[in-house]
Each structure stands twice: as structure tokens, then as C-alpha cells.
Amino acid sequence: MQVRDWQDILEDVVDRDVDPEGWRAVAGDRASGVGEDLYLAHPRVGLYALKTYAKNPYQLRGVGSRVARNLDDEIGSYLPNEETPSRFAVRSPPSDEEQAKSVAKRLETVVQTHADAPTRPQDFFDDVMDALESPAFGPMAYDQYDRPDELEGLTDTFEDADTLLDAELEELIEEDDVGRGFM
Fold this sequence. Notes:
Layout (H helix, E strand, L loop, with lengths): L3 E2 H10 L8 E6 L6 E7 L3 E11 L2 E10 L4 H5 L9 E4 L6 H19 L5 H11 L4 E8 L5 H9 L1 H18 L7
Parallel strand pairs: 2-7
Antiparallel strand pairs: 1-5, 2-3, 3-4, 4-5, 6-7
Helix pairs in contact: 3-4
């Protein structure tokens, strides 16, 4: 297992040529110490594990790795389904002014279409992410104050990877002399 910077993992996600709506995420507080745990999964890509922390209000640092090449039934049982109300997205800014105008026009059309017709929040979100050309989005199991059960299940399933990533993250935290985080 190769441990890499968390931003390199997100670049992998962005660069994957897969259905953007097929991604799933599970996230919450780390089991111990400062920071958060995040798992990103796609049936054609596998499962990534990331651990991050806020070095300061403007800088996020972390590590990650691909922990599974395939999603079996056990992994799938921990991933949220389409009916899960929380959503996530990975997004890169438009590359130039022309692309920005094109994206804005599509977004305007999507918003107007949904304003004129009954719609489910999930459908609105998905259509907005399509208009924004998001390379990865979908349902997310998340708890901003604790650890969702799904996160515990994935952590237990990939215990060795979690231990290694925790150690790498703790080294970053110590190197940055962050301690308990910024206040």
C-alpha cells in the first residue's frame, strides 16, 4: 500500500474516467486525535481512505491510499445508497473564462428548470453537479460531530491500512507542531 498526500488521492479521483455519479463517500471524526477520516468509493475504481486535519483555518493537510481495487459486498454494505440525504462533490474550478461562462449558462438552465417543476433535492444536486462538470459526486454518510457506523465498519475492515495512515498523519501533526489543532 502506497501512502500519498491527500491531494494526490483527490487528483486520482478527478482524473478517473468513470461515471461521476457512481461515487460514494463515508466520513467523520478520526477515532483518536485531531482530524477527519474519509473513504471515497466507486465500483469501477475501488476504495480510497484519506485522513486529514486542519493545520490552520486556511490549510488542510493529510494522507491517503487506495485500500481496495474492487468493491465487494462487505465494502458495499458500508456505503450510502441513492436515498441517503447527505451529498458530497469533488470540484475543480473552470480552466478559463470561456469554460466559466459555459458552465454558468448550463447552471442557470438547471436552476431555472428545477425552479419551474417539482423536484427531489437529490435530483437537483445531481443536475447541478452535472452542469458544473464535477468529476465525482454522490451520496455521503457523514457525521460532523462523531463517527457514523459505516465509518467504523470500514475502519475495522481495513484496520491495517487505518493504522498505517494514522501513524503517517500523526507524523504530519507532530511535524507541524499542531498538537490539538488550532483554536
